[in-house]
Specification:
This protein has two helices and no strands. By secondary structure, the protein is mostly helical.
């Protein structure tokens, strides 16, 4: 199992890639449901960090895939691959 420091490093890496290459996606980072705690004093632990990382990575991958598909669609003018 990874440590909090390792997961935090992975979160930071994905966040930096988003900010540098897809700044338009940055606005969604604060709106992710997992970042809005229900508890007044939420626990920061390995499980919660891992869940956040997985959610962040899914958001990033989906956006990049859609972005690439839109780019290909614009190039082919047909919308089909």
């Amino acid at each position: 199992m990874e440590t909090e420091e390792e997961i935090n490093a992975k979160i930071m890496k994905v966040t930096m890639v988003i900010q540098e290459n897809y700044p338009e996606l940055s606005k969604y980072l604060n709106e992710m449901p997992i970042t809005i705690p229900i508890d007044s004093r939420p626990a920061v632990n390995v499980q919660n960090l891992q869940k956040y990382y997985e959610t962040l990575l899914t958001l990033f991958r989906n956006y990049v895939a859609e972005h690439q598909l839109n780019y290909v669609s614009q190039k082919t003018k047909t919308g089909n691959l």
